[in-house]
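Try this one yourself first.
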């Protein structure tokens, strides 16, 4: 017990990373067994959000609107960019080191030798923290898939699927049908299931029917209309007209915002929100690393896009973002992602590449990325670097004030660039 109290957060994170032989081990038996011993139960509505892309945006939007409406919200997301604390938010603030350490200690006492993965241990720690708070709502982002993800140990009052595309095929299946079935595992009988994919796989529809969920489909039960400089949402509770565009940038964010509003419509009896709450919540939502445009010149854009669907969105957002003399990429990816498809999607928008090696067994080297660019027929100049920070420093050194620097390809890439900016180690330029 004393040893547990003495651990710092960094020591706890190192400890929980060693409690299961595998980094990823999908399944709910371990989490449910420890949850039962901890007696975890929530007395407030739970939103669970799954999807290949967009789930972080929907979670952030739900939290923002509910918080503006005066609700105390628990938000659990992953992965983090700079600090583990980012994963657990209570009432709009990050959990403190002390709160996280105390929750990890409670999990350790209850697990009784049960091997838990890093994500499972962290999820149970977040659950324990949320249970101790007087919360009005909990918003949970699925880590991987849905059916066997640790957050699915809790029953969602409203489940959301944002999109279904190919990613993590070695774990979830090599087709949209297979992946859709895994994501739809978060549906529950008699409870709302919001599906924001414009063309959902039939497996999602079958899963909703089989579970007896109350299905809300984009285009049938809710949707949005784009107006001049604004947009309208329509759904089960009626229309919310003349909305300003969300603070999160990019065309897919209207669909994500509509999904969040449909989820709120589904639970409107427990969590009614006023029109002014919706307006302010959309205007004030923040989600770092999702087409995040930083102030200053040259313009710096951060995007964690790491799969083909996200890369296509990034390319479309760059196309709509205005002219730049040069669009300079700081690019690093994991080897087990579809690097070729990402390069094909974004390649036409890039005039110069700075390729970064990522560390760890999954990280692709800069030379590997160069081979993918060559195979895709990309002829723009490219330079290889040992780290994203080094690639970003080089990009900053050569960029003019009318250029764009786009750091993308992985959470790891964006996180290291953000750290370089925070410490002032990014080289010359006017960005503050």
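Now uncover the answer:
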């Amino acid at each position: 017990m004393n040893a547990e109290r003495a651990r710092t957060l960094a020591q706890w994170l190192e400890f929980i990373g060693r409690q299961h032989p595998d980094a990823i081990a999908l399944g709910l038996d371990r989490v449910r067994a420890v949850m039962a011993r901890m007696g975890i139960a929530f007395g407030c509505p739970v939103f669970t959000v799954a999807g290949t892309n967009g789930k972080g945006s929907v979670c952030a939007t739900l939290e923002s609107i509910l918080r503006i409406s005066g609700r105390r919200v628990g938000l659990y997301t992953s992965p983090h960019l700079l600090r583990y604390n980012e994963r657990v938010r209570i009432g709009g603030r990050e959990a403190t080191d002390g709160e996280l350490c105390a929750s990890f200690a409670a999990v350790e006492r209850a697990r009784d030798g049960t091997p838990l993965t890093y994500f499972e241990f962290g999820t149970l720690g977040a659950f324990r923290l949320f249970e101790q708070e007087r919360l009005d709502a909990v918003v949970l982002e699925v880590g991987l898939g849905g059916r066997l993800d640790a957050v699915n140990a809790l029953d969602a009052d409203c489940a959301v699927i944002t999109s279904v595309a190919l990613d993590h095929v070695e774990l979830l299946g090599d087709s949209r049908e297979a992946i859709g079935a895994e994501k739809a595992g978060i549906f529950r009988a008699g409870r709302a299931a919001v599906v924001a994919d414009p063309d959902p796989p039939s497996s999602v529809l079958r899963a909703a029917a089989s579970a007896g969920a109350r299905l809300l489909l984009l285009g049938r039960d809710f949707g949005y209309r784009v107006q001049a400089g604004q947009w309208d949402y329509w759904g089960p509770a009626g229309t919310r007209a003349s909305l300003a565009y969300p603070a999160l940038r990019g065309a897919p964010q209207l669909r994500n915002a509509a999904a969040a509003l449909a989820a709120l419509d589904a639970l409107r009896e427990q969590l009614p929100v006023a029109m002014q709450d919706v307006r302010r919540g959309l205007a004030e939502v923040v989600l770092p690393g999702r087409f995040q445009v930083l102030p200053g010149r040259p313009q710096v854009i951060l995007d964690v896009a790491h799969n083909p669907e996200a890369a296509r969105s990034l390319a479309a957002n760059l196309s709509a973002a205005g002219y730049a003399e040069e669009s300079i990429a700081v690019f690093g990816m994991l080897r087990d992602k579809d690097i070729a498809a990402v390069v094909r999607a974004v390649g036409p928008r890039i005039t110069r590449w700075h390729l970064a090696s990522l560390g760890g067994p999954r990280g692709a080297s800069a030379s590997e990325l160069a081979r993918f660019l060559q195979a895709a027929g990309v002829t723009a100049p490219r330079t290889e670097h040992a780290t994203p920070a080094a690639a970003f420093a080089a990009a900053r050194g050569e960029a003019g004030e009318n250029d764009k620097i786009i750091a993308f390809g992985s959470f790891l890439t964006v996180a290291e660039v953000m750290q370089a900016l925070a410490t002032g180690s990014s080289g010359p330029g006017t960005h503050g």
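Discussion: The CA atoms of residues 271 and 318 lie 37 Å apart. Confidence is low (pLDDT under 50) at residues 426-432.
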